[in-house]
Amino acid sequence: MIDTGNLERQHQDFFALMDKISIHKSEGQVKAHASAIALLLNQLSGKLKIHAISEDKFLYPSLMNHSNSSVKTISQNFYAEMGGLAQVFEEFKSNFATTNKISANPAAFLSESQKVFTALQRRVNKENTELYPLAAL
């Protein structure tokens, strides 16, 4: 049995940071708060990296070596899916990691952040409801 409490707490941190970023709904708000948004985005990125390391080091090896073949298969699928989302997030962060990059194209930031955050929220919710319960088996 793996304790997923810390991983779940990290998920709540992601939601809180995404909410703080997403309160800026207009191009003007994004431009006016680009510095704060860049800081929050970089904090989110750091937390996501730490989270991924934790999952890769503790959660996935245990689940992928589980005696139940269904648990193995589900965890392998989750692991494979995460690679694509991680790459999408890294590209997004690279495009908007600084105040200048956000200020230069607030419309693109608004559009891309909505897409990336929706995908990330979907993934986190799926982990909470489908993957983490397997750790209790």
Automatic annotation (TrEMBL):
Protein name (Swiss-Prot/TrEMBL): Hemerythrin HHE cation binding domain-containing protein
Span of domain Hemerythrin-like: 6-135
Superkingdom per UniProt: Bacteria
